[in-house]
């Protein structure tokens, strides 16, 4: 072989080597190289939906049922009392507006959670985790507050459900008092005493530590509440006054609107369950959108709440109580059965609500260095927590005002304000839409939340401190009714 031939072969080998080196060089990617395909695959955005490995995922229909079950609870029984603070016309319009606001806020929460899952490379996130991740992957100035914000939301969620537990205790006490008072003439117990008598049964049921053991109680509660709704509607639609020929207020005083809005938020807001339902879906992309799980569920919820509130107030007028079951005839055994069954439903539901604050407390206990005296610690904490909620309920036993206060302080914040904040934070460096409409829209949501927080809290606390509850509200209504 000649020298020239050897040199040409050497040049060919050098050229091939150079091409190979260029293909491997990350600064100069060849579209024909296998390495470049690997890089492109690595650059594909993380898809949280494809990475969810659920052992028992919920179907789309099943998710709608779960969301309806969560939203259509005892809160619907408080809707007639809400209409008392708004009027027939005002309540109908207000329920629609409040429903749209709550639905949109829940949509913001789920939408932000799904998007931030991509950045965090997590298949799903809970409420508090979503808030923390939004700050962590949001504007640089907020990133250092991620853990603080997450912890704040966690504590707020726990406080919310403690407030709900107080409402449940007042409801149980009020129901038993309403039924037993006619049989204990001369020896009637106070509502505070009935609340105190719930302590031992609630302490016992709150010792159930595993959620799966609460399933039979939840199933029984769902069956009983169906019976209660049927009995309540039977009495509610019997001898119903005419819509036009009655003295029912059409639009109540603006002074009463905060109580209306706070009560509706308490009844309708499903912020505590919306993320768990979405996280357990087989096709989570169907949760939002049109029609979507959220929209379908909330249309049904808003419609039923509006109907129940309208006709409940039309039936009983200003005499309607914090739960319409308390207005049922005291001398009818069917009505008494409905009241006792509803008290039993709330009793069984208490354990499920109790699970939420205990979940946060257990996460804190998990950081302990030792597991000594675990049972004693668990029993003590659970007993103290129940005792505190019973004490608060006994101190402020007006059901209508307690519902309004919990809705104003906690659910207006968690259900409306925080979703608006995290949506704004996530979009801050990613675009706020044409003319920054997202920012202005979320500012309006924040204003609504703050208005409900301060006005609802002030009105509720003022009535509680006056010690007259229902009479205070009636005085406000009589002095400032519009028409």
TrEMBL record:
Keyword Lipid biosynthesis: no
Cross-referenced InterPro entries: AA_transpt_TM
Stretches that traverse the bilayer: 152-173, 185-205, 217-237, 257-275, 287-313, 333-356, 376-396, 402-422, 443-461
Amino acid transporter transmembrane domain sequence ranges: 58-461
Membrane topology: Multi-pass membrane protein
Subcellular location: Membrane
Keywords: Membrane, Transmembrane, Transmembrane helix
Pfam families, per the entry: Aa_trans
Protein name as annotated: Amino acid transporter transmembrane domain-containing protein
Organism this protein belongs to: Plutella xylostella (Diamondback moth)
Higher taxonomy: Eukaryota, Metazoa, Ecdysozoa, Arthropoda, Hexapoda
């Amino acid at each position: 072989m000649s020298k020239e031939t050897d040199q040409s072969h050497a040049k060919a080998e050098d050229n091939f080597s150079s091409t190979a080196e260029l293909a491997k060089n990350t600064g100069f990617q060849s579209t024909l190289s296998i390495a470049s395909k690997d890089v492109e695959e690595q650059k594909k955005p993380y898809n949280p939906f494809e990475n969810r490995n659920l052992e028992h995922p919920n179907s789309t229909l099943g998710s709608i049922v779960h969301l309806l079950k969560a939203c259509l609870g005892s809160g619907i029984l408080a809707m007639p009392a809400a209409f008392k603070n708004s009027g027939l016309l005002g309540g109908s319009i207000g329920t629609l507006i409040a429903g749209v606001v709550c639905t949109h806020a829940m949509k913001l929460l789920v939408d932000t959670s799904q998007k931030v899952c991509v950045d965090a490379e997590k298949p799903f996130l809970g409420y508090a985790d979503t808030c923390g991740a939004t700050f962590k992957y949001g504007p640089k100035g907020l990133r250092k507050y991620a853990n603080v914000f997450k912890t704040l939301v966690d504590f707020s969620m726990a406080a919310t459900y403690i407030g709900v537990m107080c409402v449940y205790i007042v409801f149980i006490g009020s129901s038993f008092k309403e039924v037993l008072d006619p049989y204990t003439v001369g020896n009637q117990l106070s509502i505070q005493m009935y609340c105190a008598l719930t302590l031992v049964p609630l302490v016992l049921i709150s010792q159930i530590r595993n959620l799966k053991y609460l399933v039979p109680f939840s199933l029984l509660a769902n069956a009983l509440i169906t019976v209660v709704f049927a009995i309540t509607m039977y009495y509610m639609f019997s001898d119903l006054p005419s819509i036009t020929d009655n003295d029912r207020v059409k639009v109540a005083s603006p002074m009463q609107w905060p109580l209306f809005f706070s009560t509706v938020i308490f009844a309708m807001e499903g912020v505590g369950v919306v993320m768990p339902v979405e996280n357990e879906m087989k096709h989570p992309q169907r949760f939002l959108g049109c029609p979507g799980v959220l929209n379908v569920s909330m249309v049904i919820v808003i419609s039923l709440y509006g109907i129940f509130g309208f006709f409940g107030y039309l039936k009983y007028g200003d005499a309607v109580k914090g739960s319409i079951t308390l207005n049922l005839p005291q001398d009818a055994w069917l009505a008494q059965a409905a009241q006792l069954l509803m008290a039993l439903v709330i009793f069984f539901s208490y354990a499920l609500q109790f699970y939420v604050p205990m979940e946060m407390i257990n996460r804190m206990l998990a950081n302990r260095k030792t597991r000594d005296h675990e049972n004693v610690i668990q029993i003590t904490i659970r007993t103290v927590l129940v005792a505190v909620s019973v004490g608060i309920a006994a101190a402020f036993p007006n059901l209508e005002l307690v519902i309004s206060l919990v809705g104003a302080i906690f659910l207006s914040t968690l259900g409306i304000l925080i979703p608006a904040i995290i949506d704004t934070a996530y979009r801050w460096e990613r675009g706020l839409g044409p003319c920054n409409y997202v920012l202005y829209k979320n500012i309006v949501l924040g204003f609504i939340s703050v208005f409900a927080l301060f006005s609802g809290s002030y009105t509720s606390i003022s009535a509680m401190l006056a010690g007259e509850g229902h009479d205070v509200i009636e005085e406000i209504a009589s002095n400032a009714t519009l028409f």
